[in-house]
Amino acid sequence: xxxxxxxxxxxxxxxxxxLYTKTFPNAIGTMWVEEESSSWITRSWKSVKVVHGYxxxxxxxxxxxxxxxxxxxxxxxxxxxLSNCHESGIMVYPRYSEATGSIQGYLCHLSGNISPQxxxxxxxxxxxxxxxxxxxxxxxxxxxxxxxxxxxxxxxPFPDCVGYNGANITTTNGNNITVRKH
Length: 182
Description:
The protein is mainly β. The protein is built from one helix and ten strands, in the order E-E-E-E-H-E-E-E-E-E-E.
């Protein structure tokens, strides 16, 4: 099954220094987009709406449980990255998986609080929900699935899509051309 917006854990990195990266394969990441627009009514009572783009929001649930992965140190390392990037932003990959190619990420600000919650009334583990808001608007609702390295370049019914020499770009049998990043 191809999952919309990918499937996987979460990854965080400091944009100006990739050495400061923390990956949480067992995190649960959700994301949503909200349209940002301006609207008004003209003097002739016509409704006008101008869409500026879409803001991406994310909620990442991290778990501090002993899975042999030293989660507490990973989480406190993430807190250090958040402290370093509170003005410039942090790269957040909400549904990250190298195995499936889910590597869609956004430059974000932390938009919620940091409040570890105990799983039980004994020290067996904790969870933390972190909320982020993208700094930049995106021009379209993200469409990547769990294999975002594949993009449909052209569909054959569009004869106005041409290459550098002016010739139509299609396969010999008229199928979509798929490009894969290396």
